[in-house]
Design brief:
heterodimer, A: alpha+beta, five-stranded mixed β-sheet, globular, B: alpha+beta, five-stranded antiparallel β-sheet, four-stranded antiparallel β-sheet, 12 helices, 36% helix
Chain lengths: 159, 291
């Protein structure tokens, strides 16, 4: 079947089998391998992308179901060489070691801050409870999201 | 790589159209909504539908509203909407209790009440919640609607009263005075299936229990309806002793199996303790509402 999906603002069209999952549709698009394919069972959260601004697990959605929807992947965070504040936060707070969970963590964190610009540590922990990190113990990830929230609040004040 | 077996895909543009497709395609067709129960089953080849009918565009099936002494919930209403609904939390706080511990927030963005109920997994929380509040399932087919009580909706593991050529369109919950409800769950880690969970609803009139609903998750082949405990409570004033007795019935009337989540005696113990706790909290909420 023919499917056309908006990914990071660009229309991507391809002939696929109806059973193709969104994660594979994205990763088979040139330059879009940032989304990681992890557990394949909607547990680990490495494959999280935004669908109409909501975080979703792309291993558990058919690509065919996404036609007519806006998909955003981790590649959309950096704009003109400038990192998104959540990326800056992960850098500043050393919130990754192996980096496998990071694309999903970043997109989950981005969606959280878009909905709730000043989350408590508990709200951050709840938001990322569907994402597994086997390196950091989560503490630095929570700090990174807090860092991003504070950075965004400070830069908004400046403007 | 986990990939479902091949199937044909179509997007429904109306409820009538979806039902017409189901009728035409027969038992090999399945509705897909959030897909967070069905797609994992298809990846494991435990479900191999030949046709999928995607109902995500049928936004007319996504609502939570109060009308004619009932709360009605559209089948396509997602977990996140059930969690955030103040209307639902006001009348049936058991939904918010359960939704806070169903999977994780990202999964809750996709999964729907209709999908959860139709999956009919014994460990699924919303089936117990809907049983406790005495909800009714509205099932639509080519010849119109029929309304089925939850105890008749659950037929067996992964089997419901929804037949070939039919779809679940709505869940209706009657509003009665003096009601309170609560859900208690024990899980191994955040977002996991329950080791055991108990949902309870209670309706108090003039200091005595007019009616009660209790159901258990994960301790039997299907959602367990505790009709014997409900019978015990009716007509009596609420008390911790009475709820402890109901808990004993829950321990006796469930049918857990030993697995990685725990042995049978532990699960029976949990079923009892969680039933007692859910009844206590439901009663506190009912009395708070009365006052």
């Amino acid at each position: 079947m023919h499917v056309s999906i908006s990914i990071n603002g660009e229309q991507v069209s391809r002939e696929i089998e109806p059973r193709q999952l969104l994660i594979h549709f994205i990763r088979e698009t040139p330059d879009l391998t940032g989304t990681h394919w992890g557990c394949d069972t909607s547990n680990c959260g490495a494959c999280v992308v935004l669908m109409d601004d909501q975080p979703v697990k792309s291993c558990t959605i058919l690509a065919a179901m996404c036609e007519g929807h806006e998909i955003r992947t981790v590649e959309s965070l950096e704009v003109n060489g400038r990192l998104d504040p959540v990326q800056m936060g992960f850098h500043e707070q050393h919130a990754l070691q192996c980096g496998f969970c990071t694309p999903g963590m970043l997109m989950t964190a981005r969606a959280l801050l878009d909905e709730n610009p000043d989350p408590t540590d508990q709200e951050i922990r709840t938001a990322i409870s569907g994402a597994i990190c086997r390196c950091t113990g989560y503490k630095n990830i929570v700090s990174a999201v807090r860092w991003a929230a504070e950075y965004e609040a400070a830069t908004k004040q400046e403007v | 790589m986990q990939t479902p077996a091949s199937f044909e895909y179509e997007r429904a543009t109306s409820v009538e159209g979806a039902i017409a497709s189901l009728q035409k395609l027969g038992s090999e067709a399945r509705i897909i909504a959030g897909g967070h129960s069905l797609l994992p089953m298809m990846k494991l080849r435990l479900a191999n539908p030949e046709h999928l009918i995607d109902i995500n565009d049928l936004t007319e099936l996504s609502y939570i509203r109060e009308q004619d002494d009932e709360i009605s919930i559209g089948a396509l209403t997602r977990h996140v909407e059930l969690l955030k609904s103040d209307l639902l939390a006001q009348h049936f706080p058991v939904f918010r209790d359960a939704e806070n511990v169903i999977a994780d927030p990202v999964v809750r963005n996709r999964g729907t009440i209709g999908g959860s109920l139709c999956q009919a997994d014994a460990a699924e929380d919303l089936s117990a919640v809907c049983s406790a509040v005495k909800a009714k399932a509205v099932i639509r087919g080519a010849d119109g609607e029929r309304v089925v009580a939850m105890e008749d909706f659950h037929i067996g593991p992964y089997v419901t009263a929804v037949g070939d050529g039919e779809m679940l369109t709505e869940v209706r919950i009657p509003l009665r005075p003096g009601g309170g409800s609560a859900h208690e769950k024990v899980e191994r880690r955040a977002g996991d299936w329950a080791i055991a969970a108990a949902s309870a609803a209670i309706w108090i009139e003039g200091g005595t229990i007019a009616d009660a609903g209790i159901a258990l998750s994960a301790v039997g082949l299907t959602t367990i309806h505790l009709s014997r405990a409900e019978e015990l409570l009716r007509g009596k004033p609420p008390s911790e002793e009475l709820f402890a007795q109901a808990g004993e019935i829950a321990s006796a009337d469930c049918a857990p199996r030993a697995d990685g989540r725990g042995p049978i005696d532990y699960k029976r113990h949990l079923a009892g303790v969680l039933t007692t706790r859910a009844l206590s909290r439901a009663t506190a909420r009912a009395l708070q509402q009365e006052a």
